[in-house]
Amino acid sequence: MSNDRPRRPTIIDVAAEAGVSKSLVSLALRGDDGVSETTRRRILAAADRLGYRSNTVARALVQGRTGQIGVIVTDLRNPYHSEVALGVEKAAEDAGLGTFLANGRRDADRMAAHVDSLIGHNVEGLVVVSSRVDTAVLAAAAERLPVVVVGRPEILPDRIDSVAGDDESGARLAVEHLVSLGHTDIAFASASTRPAARARHRGYAAALADAGLEAAEAVAVPIEGGTGEADDLLRGGATAVLSNNDLLAVELLNRGHEIGVVAPDRISIVGYDNTELAARVWPRLTSVDQRRTALGRTALSMLSERIAGRTAARREVIAPGLVVRDSTATPKE
Amino acid sequence: MSNDRPRRPTIIDVAAEAGVSKSLVSLALRGDDGVSETTRRRILAAADRLGYRSNTVARALVQGRTGQIGVIVTDLRNPYHSEVALGVEKAAEDAGLGTFLANGRRDADRMAAHVDSLIGHNVEGLVVVSSRVDTAVLAAAAERLPVVVVGRPEILPDRIDSVAGDDESGARLAVEHLVSLGHTDIAFASASTRPAARARHRGYAAALADAGLEAAEAVAVPIEGGTGEADDLLRGGATAVLSNNDLLAVELLNRGHEIGVVAPDRISIVGYDNTELAARVWPRLTSVDQRRTALGRTALSMLSERIAGRTAARREVIAPGLVVRDSTATPKE
DNA sequence: ACTGGAATCTGGAACGTTCCAGATTCGTTC
DNA sequence: GAACGAATCTGGAACGTTCCAGATTCCAGT
Fold it and tell me: Using CA atoms, how far apart are residues A261 and A241, in angstroms rounded to an integer?
């Protein structure tokens, strides 16, 4: 069974149809103003009649540029990633650039493959929203095209720009909020020991020190099935918890419901990332907002500068904000 | 300030470096077995030394095929869309096809533009996960390449395949579950009057009729700020509510907490879509699962068949399942 | 009517790959 | 050591566009 779809018309078919040269068709379609009004109309009509659509691939080949950038995220289902990607995408659209979105699905090898594939597709720059892509892979990519990394507070080669939320000050904001409510025994919970989590713990400890209070070690609570750890935390002495991310905070919230340690009456809980989830759970979660859209926008502006020729590294840090909702309150007793 | 990045090496550079013809380089890189082992190694080494990466754009131009498909979704932030997209993507990867993901951001014009752009990029097929793309746009696209639509229970031209969850039987499942728990007064809430919502209401009414119970009109509750409508619903006589989607169900859950009509004690609530959210709220939400991954997988298999030459339309319906969690229970008193 | 310059149009080269037909080399067999 | 087929390699054409240098047409001014 063979595909009967007609061969896709080319600029040459349109030229024949309109009775002009292919070059003129090209000019007319691109709106060049060396084409007389009458022939332009004739050409457009011919193109329309044939259902012509310009072949981006051929254009990209001859121009050596595609007008596309690549965006690689760890996991699209994670709202943090998808919203940063959205910010990049919007800003790219405004800058007249198209976006190829690649989803790594938490697999470092797949992400490395995506890097290759995007470079193969001649993207003009790469935005990496992931801490899982190997630095060596990034460095190799950066030899070929501009690369900007979002949300990775670590040392990167000079060819690579980066923008990240300020994790220390984000954690600070949360702690200051809890302290101002009157909490004195504040815990820090995390399911990860990645650099971002460590930075947040540093901010947490520093803010407590500034308030003359004592910081605790980070409590490791696995997100799925960490009920034992969660129970210990919820039933321990702390009247408030700062969680390394919203997902974990929500698990604590829910476990609290189950064992009768309900927020915000018995315990105050602060999340991190201000994802969609935070606004939808009960009680609605107070959370640190990384300004994802700003992250994305900044990433794109850095990329544009690189594409335009900047060579010096740029490191940007975005100050987070705190969104206060209903999961935090004055401690009772 | 000019960009000092070196010109990207081509197959010809590699050929010169290895002292062979460009054709042989092409063969060697593609793993053709008409190349002797020693020269293959020499060529690969040369390629490696120059940091050569094959130019997909040039290959696509000459082969007339890109090995890519396009996936257009209404809104990536909506977990339903992103998970269907994920299903498509996984299946495509298994089939050796790459995926371009385009995010419509709820704008019909943008989505139409994405269709054009993807066709321009010579994708071999299009999966549309959106009920917002104009049918005329789809029909025009389908003249040029295979198009599969996911989750749109409406009449489409023969060139276009479709796969959708069975909304009537999904609603049925939910109602049967509630009836079996002993509920007799069951409401249906929706924020939309799109075809899917109407089909779900039909299923709801039919299931109630089968049980000898009375169906009510769909109650319109806006998702944001619909507290008046929500209050009426929660305080009305119904002991159970089937909601047209998880988002709305969660709003009802939360509003219930606020006014003391708590699920599942005072009211049972069932969502639709079984999104991530359903598993994370308190109480965890019973929800109809559309089997998003199956939707995506089926969409891709239909697309592959079309690419291979099938011309007859295929319409597929996926039977949903019910995931019972903690928001439904036997009615009290 | 003739000129010169502007306006409009054209043909071929180029982009980096694959594909094809054929050229060259190699090893075996007589 | 000649002949032959298999193994290995090569050069040019093609893909559909843009770009460039130049060709042609048109028109105003003399």
Answer: 12
